[in-house]
Amino acid sequence: MRHVRRGAAVLAAVGALLVACGSGESSADPAAADALRAARRHVAAAGSARVDATTDTGGGLTSRSAGTLAWSDGVEGTLTVRITGGELAASTRKLGGDPSQTRFLPDAYYTRMTDAFASLQGGRHWIRHPYDAHSDLTPADSLKALGEAKDLRRVGRETVRGTWTTHYRGTSGEQQMDVWIDFRDLLVQRTQRAGDFTSTIRYSDYGAEAAAVRPPAHDTVDFSDITSGG
Q1: Which value, to the nearest 10 degrees, does the dihedral of the CA atoms of residues 53, 217, 97, 102 take?
Q2: CB neighbours of residue 106 within 10 Å
Q3: Are 53 and 201 in contact (CB under 8 A)?
Q4: Which CATH class is domain 2-227?
Q5: What are the residue boundaries of the structural domains of the chain, listed by start?
Q6: What pTM does this model have?
Q7: Which strand ranges, in their side-by-side order, compose the sheet holding 62-70?
Q8: pLDDT higher than threshold 50 for residue 230
Q9: With DSSP H G I counted as helix, E B as strand and the rest as coil, what are the percentages for the chain, rounded to 5?
Q10: Pairing status of strand 126-130 against strand 220-222
Q11: Is residue 200 within 8 Å of residue 178, measured between CB atoms?
Q12: Partners of 2 in the β-ladder
Protein backbone atom coordinates (compact mmCIF):
# COMPACT_ATOMS: atom_id res chain seq x y z
CA MET A 1 0.00 0.00 0.00
CA ARG A 2 3.00 2.35 0.26
CA HIS A 3 2.73 3.53 -3.35
CA VAL A 4 -1.01 4.16 -2.87
CA ARG A 5 -0.44 6.29 0.24
CA ARG A 6 2.35 8.19 -1.48
CA GLY A 7 0.27 8.87 -4.57
CA ALA A 8 -2.64 10.07 -2.45
CA ALA A 9 -0.34 12.38 -0.49
CA VAL A 10 1.06 13.89 -3.70
CA LEU A 11 -2.43 14.67 -4.99
CA ALA A 12 -3.36 16.07 -1.59
CA ALA A 13 -0.50 18.55 -1.97
CA VAL A 14 -1.92 19.67 -5.30
CA GLY A 15 -5.23 20.53 -3.64
CA ALA A 16 -3.54 22.10 -0.64
CA LEU A 17 -1.69 24.63 -2.80
CA LEU A 18 -4.78 26.82 -2.53
CA VAL A 19 -4.57 26.83 1.26
CA ALA A 20 -1.96 28.93 3.06
CA CYS A 21 -0.95 28.99 6.73
CA GLY A 22 -1.29 32.16 8.76
CA SER A 23 1.46 33.92 10.69
CA GLY A 24 -0.47 35.87 13.33
CA GLU A 25 2.30 38.48 13.70
CA SER A 26 2.41 42.29 13.28
CA SER A 27 3.75 43.89 10.09
CA ALA A 28 6.83 46.11 10.21
CA ASP A 29 5.69 48.01 7.06
CA PRO A 30 2.44 49.88 7.81
CA ALA A 31 2.01 51.18 4.24
CA ALA A 32 2.30 47.70 2.76
CA ALA A 33 -0.05 46.34 5.43
CA ASP A 34 -2.61 49.05 4.58
CA ALA A 35 -2.41 48.12 0.90
CA LEU A 36 -3.04 44.46 1.67
CA ARG A 37 -5.96 45.34 3.95
CA ALA A 38 -7.57 47.25 1.08
CA ALA A 39 -6.96 44.32 -1.27
CA ARG A 40 -8.40 41.93 1.29
CA ARG A 41 -11.65 43.95 1.46
CA HIS A 42 -12.03 44.03 -2.32
CA VAL A 43 -11.21 40.35 -2.79
CA ALA A 44 -13.64 39.33 -0.03
CA ALA A 45 -16.38 41.48 -1.58
CA ALA A 46 -15.81 39.96 -5.04
CA GLY A 47 -16.68 36.55 -3.60
CA SER A 48 -15.26 34.36 -6.38
CA ALA A 49 -12.77 34.17 -9.25
CA ARG A 50 -11.33 31.94 -11.89
CA VAL A 51 -8.03 30.39 -10.87
CA ASP A 52 -5.13 28.98 -12.85
CA ALA A 53 -2.56 27.32 -10.60
CA THR A 54 0.73 25.49 -11.02
CA THR A 55 2.58 23.48 -8.40
CA ASP A 56 6.00 21.86 -8.16
CA THR A 57 6.67 19.50 -5.26
CA GLY A 58 10.41 19.66 -5.85
CA GLY A 59 10.97 17.33 -8.79
CA GLY A 60 8.53 14.66 -7.68
CA LEU A 61 5.52 16.12 -9.45
CA THR A 62 4.45 19.18 -11.37
CA SER A 63 0.82 19.97 -12.14
CA ARG A 64 -1.58 22.61 -13.40
CA SER A 65 -5.08 23.23 -12.04
CA ALA A 66 -7.83 25.43 -13.46
CA GLY A 67 -11.40 26.24 -12.51
CA THR A 68 -13.53 28.63 -10.48
CA LEU A 69 -13.66 29.09 -6.71
CA ALA A 70 -16.11 31.00 -4.51
CA TRP A 71 -15.57 32.06 -0.89
CA SER A 72 -18.60 34.13 0.17
CA ASP A 73 -19.97 31.33 2.38
CA GLY A 74 -17.10 28.93 2.88
CA VAL A 75 -14.97 27.65 0.01
CA GLU A 76 -16.76 26.10 -2.95
CA GLY A 77 -15.68 25.27 -6.47
CA THR A 78 -14.27 22.71 -8.87
CA LEU A 79 -10.81 22.47 -10.40
CA THR A 80 -9.51 20.27 -13.19
CA VAL A 81 -6.01 19.00 -12.38
CA ARG A 82 -3.49 17.92 -15.02
CA ILE A 83 -0.15 16.27 -14.30
CA THR A 84 2.61 18.01 -16.27
CA GLY A 85 5.77 16.17 -15.22
CA GLY A 86 8.03 14.84 -12.48
CA GLU A 87 9.38 11.46 -11.48
CA LEU A 88 6.06 10.50 -9.83
CA ALA A 89 3.96 11.51 -12.85
CA ALA A 90 3.31 7.99 -14.16
CA SER A 91 2.27 6.50 -10.82
CA THR A 92 0.17 9.54 -9.97
CA ARG A 93 -1.66 9.35 -13.29
CA LYS A 94 -2.38 5.67 -12.66
CA LEU A 95 -3.93 6.39 -9.26
CA GLY A 96 -5.41 9.83 -9.80
CA GLY A 97 -6.06 10.02 -13.51
CA ASP A 98 -5.04 12.77 -15.90
CA PRO A 99 -6.97 14.96 -15.85
CA SER A 100 -8.33 14.51 -12.36
CA GLN A 101 -10.77 16.69 -10.46
CA THR A 102 -10.73 18.40 -7.09
CA ARG A 103 -13.92 19.71 -5.50
CA PHE A 104 -13.75 22.29 -2.73
CA LEU A 105 -16.59 22.41 -0.20
CA PRO A 106 -16.85 24.26 3.13
CA ASP A 107 -15.87 21.22 5.24
CA ALA A 108 -13.12 19.67 3.10
CA TYR A 109 -11.79 19.24 -0.41
CA TYR A 110 -12.30 16.03 -2.39
CA THR A 111 -9.97 14.44 -4.97
CA ARG A 112 -11.25 12.08 -7.66
CA MET A 113 -9.12 8.95 -8.16
CA THR A 114 -9.11 6.15 -10.74
CA ASP A 115 -10.65 2.69 -10.79
CA ALA A 116 -7.18 1.31 -10.00
CA PHE A 117 -7.20 3.28 -6.75
CA ALA A 118 -10.82 2.37 -6.00
CA SER A 119 -10.06 -1.33 -6.38
CA LEU A 120 -7.75 -0.99 -3.36
CA GLN A 121 -10.19 1.07 -1.31
CA GLY A 122 -13.41 -0.91 -1.31
CA GLY A 123 -14.60 0.61 -4.58
CA ARG A 124 -14.34 4.22 -3.37
CA HIS A 125 -13.09 6.80 -5.88
CA TRP A 126 -13.00 10.05 -3.88
CA ILE A 127 -10.58 11.08 -1.12
CA ARG A 128 -11.82 13.56 1.47
CA HIS A 129 -9.16 15.96 2.80
CA PRO A 130 -10.29 18.00 5.85
CA TYR A 131 -8.85 21.48 6.12
CA ASP A 132 -6.17 22.21 8.69
CA ALA A 133 -7.57 24.23 11.61
CA HIS A 134 -4.89 26.90 11.07
CA SER A 135 -5.33 27.20 7.32
CA ASP A 136 -6.32 30.37 5.48
CA LEU A 137 -8.91 29.00 3.10
CA THR A 138 -9.63 32.02 0.90
CA PRO A 139 -7.41 34.48 -0.98
CA ALA A 140 -8.68 37.20 1.38
CA ASP A 141 -7.48 35.12 4.35
CA SER A 142 -4.07 34.77 2.72
CA LEU A 143 -3.83 38.53 2.25
CA LYS A 144 -4.66 39.01 5.93
CA ALA A 145 -1.93 36.55 6.95
CA LEU A 146 0.67 38.19 4.73
CA GLY A 147 -0.37 41.63 5.94
CA GLU A 148 0.60 40.56 9.47
CA ALA A 149 4.05 39.27 8.50
CA LYS A 150 6.91 41.00 10.34
CA ASP A 151 9.03 41.03 7.19
CA LEU A 152 6.32 42.28 4.82
CA ARG A 153 7.66 44.73 2.24
CA ARG A 154 6.76 46.33 -1.05
CA VAL A 155 8.96 44.91 -3.81
CA GLY A 156 7.87 47.28 -6.57
CA ARG A 157 5.78 47.69 -9.70
CA GLU A 158 5.63 44.74 -12.13
CA THR A 159 3.44 43.46 -14.95
CA VAL A 160 1.60 40.15 -14.67
CA ARG A 161 -0.06 38.91 -17.86
CA GLY A 162 0.01 42.43 -19.24
CA THR A 163 -1.50 44.05 -16.13
CA TRP A 164 0.43 46.53 -14.00
CA THR A 165 0.57 45.38 -10.40
CA THR A 166 2.32 46.12 -7.12
CA HIS A 167 4.38 43.23 -5.76
CA TYR A 168 4.56 42.52 -2.00
CA ARG A 169 6.60 39.84 -0.21
CA GLY A 170 6.77 38.39 3.28
CA THR A 171 6.83 35.20 5.35
CA SER A 172 3.56 33.63 6.42
CA GLY A 173 3.97 30.66 8.73
CA GLU A 174 6.87 28.72 7.22
CA GLN A 175 6.20 29.90 3.68
CA GLN A 176 7.59 32.78 1.68
CA MET A 177 4.59 34.43 0.07
CA ASP A 178 4.53 36.90 -2.81
CA VAL A 179 1.38 38.66 -4.01
CA TRP A 180 0.67 41.00 -6.90
CA ILE A 181 -2.17 43.52 -6.51
CA ASP A 182 -3.68 45.49 -9.41
CA PHE A 183 -5.09 49.05 -9.58
CA ARG A 184 -8.53 47.77 -8.50
CA ASP A 185 -7.02 46.42 -5.26
CA LEU A 186 -7.61 42.86 -6.48
CA LEU A 187 -5.21 39.96 -6.13
CA VAL A 188 -3.79 38.98 -9.54
CA GLN A 189 -1.19 36.40 -8.53
CA ARG A 190 0.06 34.63 -5.42
CA THR A 191 3.22 32.52 -5.09
CA GLN A 192 4.13 30.38 -2.09
CA ARG A 193 7.45 28.67 -1.43
CA ALA A 194 8.31 26.25 1.36
CA GLY A 195 11.44 24.17 0.95
CA ASP A 196 11.26 22.49 -2.45
CA PHE A 197 7.52 23.13 -2.78
CA THR A 198 6.40 26.02 -4.98
CA SER A 199 2.92 27.03 -6.06
CA THR A 200 1.65 29.92 -8.15
CA ILE A 201 -2.02 30.88 -8.40
CA ARG A 202 -3.36 33.45 -10.86
CA TYR A 203 -6.79 35.02 -10.32
CA SER A 204 -9.06 36.52 -12.97
CA ASP A 205 -12.75 37.11 -13.77
CA TYR A 206 -13.71 38.07 -10.24
CA GLY A 207 -17.38 37.37 -9.59
CA ALA A 208 -17.48 34.31 -11.87
CA GLU A 209 -19.98 31.61 -10.87
CA ALA A 210 -18.55 28.61 -8.99
CA ALA A 211 -20.11 25.35 -7.85
CA ALA A 212 -19.16 21.90 -6.55
CA VAL A 213 -21.17 18.73 -6.02
CA ARG A 214 -20.43 16.71 -2.90
CA PRO A 215 -19.28 13.18 -3.83
CA PRO A 216 -21.51 10.36 -2.58
CA ALA A 217 -20.57 9.16 0.90
CA HIS A 218 -20.43 5.53 -0.24
CA ASP A 219 -17.83 6.50 -2.87
CA THR A 220 -15.61 8.50 -0.49
CA VAL A 221 -12.72 7.53 1.78
CA ASP A 222 -11.04 9.85 4.30
CA PHE A 223 -7.42 10.73 3.61
CA SER A 224 -6.51 9.58 7.12
CA ASP A 225 -7.75 6.11 6.28
CA ILE A 226 -5.59 6.01 3.16
CA THR A 227 -2.46 7.02 5.03
CA SER A 228 -3.13 4.47 7.74
CA GLY A 229 -3.42 1.65 5.26
CA GLY A 230 -6.82 2.05 3.58
Answers
A1: -10
A2: 12
A3: yes
A4: mainly beta
A5: 2-227
A6: 0.86
A7: 153-160, 163-172, 175-181, 187-194, 197-204, 48-56, 62-70, 76-85, 100-105, 108-112, 126-130, 220-222
A8: no
A9: 25, 40, 35
A10: parallel
A11: no
A12: none
